[in-house]
């Protein structure tokens, strides 16, 4: 049977069963069903007809536009869109920051998200979610930052961390030697991290700095913690999103940033940028060349010099510029010879500290008197070390103690005399404290039971005993004994000291070596045109591709220079014109000796002046001392702080009356006056002309020393000013105890060894921390260190210490203010997106350019050290300290270490309640060095417990 017949049979069967079931009601039920179906169809028809009549115009318009891009318009009309501008965009609460930050986020979204997201979807909802998430993170971070006081971190902890980093490097360098090869560098880094375990209390960052995989794992763990603190809960619990953000932070932000900031070449460029242009001088540049121990640096400088020589020779065709060209060629040839000489020295063998001084012979050495040695800290330190090596330190310490006693006694007795004159009733002066101090000195050096008894004749000791028993104690109690000790020091130690290598080294450090003085004089004559004409040469005389090794600010000083072989002819400067002019020339120098035998140098100034509408020229001679020029310089610095004044020739540590030195100083002072008498400078700076006329007037120059200058003078002769502070100190050398305590202090952080008083004074704390580690002050003689610390404390207190504190606080507040933060973000935006376009990747710099940048960096760092610090610490100590800091920055792994220390310190300060210290200690616990120390400690504690148990059993 066919399917149709089967369906009919089933239909008939159903109808039959329907009628059989419902009987007479079957027809009624069937009619109701048909009526319901018909009504439904009628309603659907009417509703569809009405809807079609209403929408017909729009449908017709859309259908008519199908041939003119209508499909795209329909598609865009149907897409659900959400505009970013529909929600609040405020983030930090400071509009000056938010405006710049929005631009940065917009650029970041454009260049790092839309580039790949638009290939997947055109919906903006994802971008809105990303923006809102970043906004919440910034809001949380900014609110957290506003509650933090950054002052203790920036003025205490940060300085302490950096100084401790220098201490670790210094100790590692002393242990392994100077790191010149790759093997030595690896040994230095290993020694550095071995010592870090001791300093950081069993915590070491070696894995983070040496192993890239461990560094990535550390940053991933740290990012997880930061995301937990900053992300909203719903975003943090979204694991795929959290992992993506973590990897972006680690591989896209943290690691590239740390890699860039730890790059030695980047640090060198940054230091060059930070240092003032005036810090680069010909003296510092030549010092760096002569002391360089890197052959690649010298070759790079020589290569650039050869290129400049070829360029200047191509211009040597005669004409009006012939003199300038020859001067530049002479200067460049001199610089080339200096590089070649140093390269030959390096090829001949390793360079020692004695070779750097380069004493060719022992004849014609400058002789320092014993009194001059006592009056200079650095010379005294060298003499103390020499006398100690011969076991005669008790004589020297006795002499210094008596000097302190005399200074304190004179002051105390004079004060008592003033009180007795002003008081109505006659009071007997209380000399008991002074007598006790004298007894301490006597018991220490002169009594029979003295541990440091002096071997001198008994009659001298009897005289001191009689004066001690006298009712009226005076400052001359130990005069006879001190005079005898002075004879012993002079005959037994001083004369031998003059023949020692220590004295030769001291003269080199003080710049008093006769051979070096002659070389310096020749350098100034032949190298002068580099200073005067370097700016005119422009980029052609530059020693690097990005930085000029010459000082551009010296171009304006003048072009009339002294060429080789021109002698010492003086130059005249001023403002000559047809109507009026004033010419000033430092013509000569001489030495004036007074009746009391005191001598000093004077400089003769010839002044020629023609007033307006006058036919006659007036002229006169003026003589001035160097101290007069120094006084003028300090007045100019205070009265005209915005005026760029050339540096004055630095003070000498001891008097130098040699003809070559005075001639060099005369030329420098002549150049100094020429700059100050420039016509445009006189006209533009109000009050400068009157001051210069007063200085150049033919009369006695009245001292107008500024307050700052008077305070700085305490540095020149600190022994006389502050020796009384050490009264009653015991100078007995306890070598074993000192070495043990010094070793213990070296294993601690720098801040742990500071006095509480020093820790409260921000400037003093910073200066002491830096001087201790940069100049290795802790390893110097403790008497000298106490003197320097006392001088620094007096200097800072005298120089308005409270105002300095306030200025530091104000500076930190300024650097963390909203306006300054906006400047940081703006600088980042301009460097990352110049003109709104993503910057191209940095082009790698060639090795020669990097080497020249290193030379420039060292020269600027050395030139940035003030002359007062050189006078206080010594030239060689300053040079070695600067070299130590520079060499420390040449190790990328060590740079990473200090960056992670700073990062951890910032996070600990930012989140003080989240136990970040414990988190960092746990993250760094993977280090094998830390594990070995912990295992050794556990073994030691177990052995101690076993010994205790055995003792209890006994």
Automatic annotation (TrEMBL):
<feature type="domain" description="PX">
    <location>
        <begin position="581"/>
        <end position="702"/>
    </location>
</feature>
<feature type="domain" description="PXA">
    <location>
        <begin position="94"/>
        <end position="279"/>
    </location>
</feature>
<dbReference type="InterPro" id="IPR016137">
    <property type="entry name" value="RGS"/>
</dbReference>
<dbReference type="GO" id="GO:0035091">
    <property type="term" value="F:phosphatidylinositol binding"/>
</dbReference>
<dbReference type="Pfam" id="PF02194">
    <property type="entry name" value="PXA"/>
</dbReference>
<comment type="similarity">
    <text>Belongs to the sorting nexin family.</text>
</comment>
<protein>
    <submittedName>
        <fullName>Sorting nexin-13-like isoform X1</fullName>
    </submittedName>
</protein>
<feature type="region of interest" description="Disordered">
    <location>
        <begin position="934"/>
        <end position="954"/>
    </location>
</feature>
<dbReference type="InterPro" id="IPR013937">
    <property type="entry name" value="Sorting_nexin_C"/>
</dbReference>
<dbReference type="Pfam" id="PF00615">
    <property type="entry name" value="RGS"/>
</dbReference>
<dbReference type="InterPro" id="IPR044926">
    <property type="entry name" value="RGS_subdomain_2"/>
</dbReference>
<dbReference type="InterPro" id="IPR001683">
    <property type="entry name" value="PX_dom"/>
</dbReference>
<dbReference type="InterPro" id="IPR003114">
    <property type="entry name" value="Phox_assoc"/>
</dbReference>
<dbReference type="GO" id="GO:0005769">
    <property type="term" value="C:early endosome"/>
</dbReference>
<feature type="domain" description="RGS">
    <location>
        <begin position="369"/>
        <end position="507"/>
    </location>
</feature>
<dbReference type="Pfam" id="PF00787">
    <property type="entry name" value="PX"/>
</dbReference>
<dbReference type="Pfam" id="PF08628">
    <property type="entry name" value="Nexin_C"/>
</dbReference>
<dbReference type="InterPro" id="IPR036871">
    <property type="entry name" value="PX_dom_sf"/>
</dbReference>
<dbReference type="InterPro" id="IPR036305">
    <property type="entry name" value="RGS_sf"/>
</dbReference>
């Amino acid at each position: 049977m066919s399917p149709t017949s089967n369906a009919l049979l089933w239909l008939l069967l159903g109808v039959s069963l329907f009628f059989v079931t419902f009987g007479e009601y079957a027809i009624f039920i069937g009619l109701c069903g048909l009526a319901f179906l018909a009504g439904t169809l009628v309603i659907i028809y009417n509703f569809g007809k009405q809807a079609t009549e209403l929408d017909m115009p729009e449908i017709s318009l859309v259908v008519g536009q199908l041939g003119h891009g209508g499909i795209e318009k329909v598609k865009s009309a149907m897409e659900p869109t959400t505009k970013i501008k529909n929600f609040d965009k405020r983030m930090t609460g400071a509009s000056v920051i938010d405006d710049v930050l929005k631009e940065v986020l917009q650029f970041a979204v454009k260049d790092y998200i839309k580039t790949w997201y638009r290939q997947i979807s055109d919906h903006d909802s994802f971008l809105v979610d990303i923006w809102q998430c970043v906004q919440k993170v910034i809001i949380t971070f900014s609110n957290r930052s506003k509650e933090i006081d950054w002052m203790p971190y920036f003025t205490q902890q940060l300085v302490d961390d950096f100084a401790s980093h220098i201490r670790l490097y210094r100790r590692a360098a002393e242990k392994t030697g100077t790191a010149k090869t790759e093997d030595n560098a690896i040994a230095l880094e290993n020694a550095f991290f071995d010592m870090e375990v001791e300093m950081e209390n069993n915590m070491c960052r070696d894995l983070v700095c040496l192993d890239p995989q461990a560094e990535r794992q550390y940053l991933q763990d740290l990012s997880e913690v930061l995301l937990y603190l900053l992300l909203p809960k719903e975003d943090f619990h979204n694991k795929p999103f959290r992992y993506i953000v973590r990897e972006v932070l680690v591989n896209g932000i943290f690691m590239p940033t740390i890699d860039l900031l730890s790059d030695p070449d980047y640090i060198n460029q940054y230091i060059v940028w930070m240092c003032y242009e005036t810090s680069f001088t010909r003296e510092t540049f030549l010092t760096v060349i002569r002391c360089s121990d890197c052959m690649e640096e010298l070759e790079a400088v020589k290569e650039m010099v050869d290129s400049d020589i070829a360029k200047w020779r191509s211009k040597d065709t005669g004409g009006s510029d012939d003199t300038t060209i020859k001067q530049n060629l002479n200067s460049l040839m001199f610089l080339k010879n200096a590089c070649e000489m140093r390269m030959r020295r390096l090829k001949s063998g390793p360079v020692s500290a004695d070779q750097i001084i380069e004493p060719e012979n022992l004849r014609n050495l400058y002789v320092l008197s014993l009194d001059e040695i006592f009056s200079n800290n650095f010379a005294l330190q060298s003499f103390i070390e020499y006398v100690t090596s011969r076991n005669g330190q008790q004589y020297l310490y006795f002499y210094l103690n008596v000097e302190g006693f005399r200074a304190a006694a004179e002051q105390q007795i004079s004060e008592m005399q003033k009180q007795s004159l002003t008081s109505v009733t006659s009071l007997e002066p209380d000399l008991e404290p002074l007598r006790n101090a004298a007894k301490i000195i006597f018991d220490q050096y002169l009594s029979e039971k003295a541990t440091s008894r002096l071997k001198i004749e008994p009659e001298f000791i009897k005289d001191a005993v009689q004066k001690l028993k006298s009712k009226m104690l005076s400052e001359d109690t130990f005069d006879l004994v001190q005079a005898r000790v002075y004879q012993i020091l002079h005959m037994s130690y001083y004369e031998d000291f003059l023949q020692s290598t220590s004295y030769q080294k001291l003269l080199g450090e003080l710049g008093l070596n006769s051979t070096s003085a002659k070389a310096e004089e020749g350098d100034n004559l032949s190298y002068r045109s580099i200073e005067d004409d370097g700016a005119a040469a422009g980029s052609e005389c530059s020693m690097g591709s990005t930085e000029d090794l010459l000082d551009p600010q010296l171009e304006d000083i003048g072009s009339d220079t002294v060429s080789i072989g021109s002698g010492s002819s003086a130059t005249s400067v001023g403002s000559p014109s047809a109507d009026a002019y004033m010419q000033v020339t430092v013509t000569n120098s001489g030495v004036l000796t007074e009746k009391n035998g005191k001598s000093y140098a004077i400089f003769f100034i010839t002044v020629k002046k023609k007033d307006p509408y006058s036919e006659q020229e007036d002229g006169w001679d003026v003589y001035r001392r160097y101290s007069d020029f120094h006084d003028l310089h300090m007045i100019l610095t205070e009265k005209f702080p915005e005026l760029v004044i050339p540096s004055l020739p630095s003070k000498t540590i001891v008097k130098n009356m040699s003809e070559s030195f005075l001639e060099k100083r005369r030329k420098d002072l002549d150049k100094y006056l020429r700059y100050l008498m420039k016509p445009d400078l006189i006209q533009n700076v109000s009050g400068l002309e009157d001051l210069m006329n007063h200085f150049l007037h033919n009369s006695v120059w009245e001292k107008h020393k500024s307050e700052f200058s008077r305070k700085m003078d305490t540095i020149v002769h600190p022994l006389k000013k502050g020796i009384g502070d050490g009264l009653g100190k015991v100078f007995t050398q306890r070598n074993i105890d000192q070495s043990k305590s010094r070793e213990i202090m070296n294993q601690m952080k720098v801040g742990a060894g500071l006095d509480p008083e020093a820790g409260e004074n921000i400037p003093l704390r910073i200066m002491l921390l830096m001087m201790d580690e940069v100049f290795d002050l802790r390893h110097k003689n403790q008497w000298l260190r106490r003197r320097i610390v006392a001088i620094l404390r007096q200097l800072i207190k005298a120089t308005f210490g409270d105002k300095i504190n306030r200025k530091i606080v104000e500076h930190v507040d300024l650097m963390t203010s909203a306006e300054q933060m906006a400047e940081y973000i703006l600088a980042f935006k301009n460097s990352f997106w110049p003109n709104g376009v993503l910057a191209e990747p940095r082009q790698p710099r060639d090795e020669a350019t990097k080497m020249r940048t290193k030379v420039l960096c060292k020269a600027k760092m050395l030139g940035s050290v003030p002359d007062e610090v050189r006078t206080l610490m010594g030239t060689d100590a300053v040079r070695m300290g600067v070299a130590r800091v520079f060499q420390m920055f040449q190790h990328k792994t060590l740079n990473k270490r200090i960056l992670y220390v700073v990062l951890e310190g910032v996070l600990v300060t930012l989140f003080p309640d989240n136990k970040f210290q414990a988190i960092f200690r746990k993250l760094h616990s993977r280090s094998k060095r830390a594990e070995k120390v912990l295992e050794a400690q556990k073994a030691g504690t177990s052995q101690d417990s076993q010994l205790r148990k055995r003792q209890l059993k006994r």
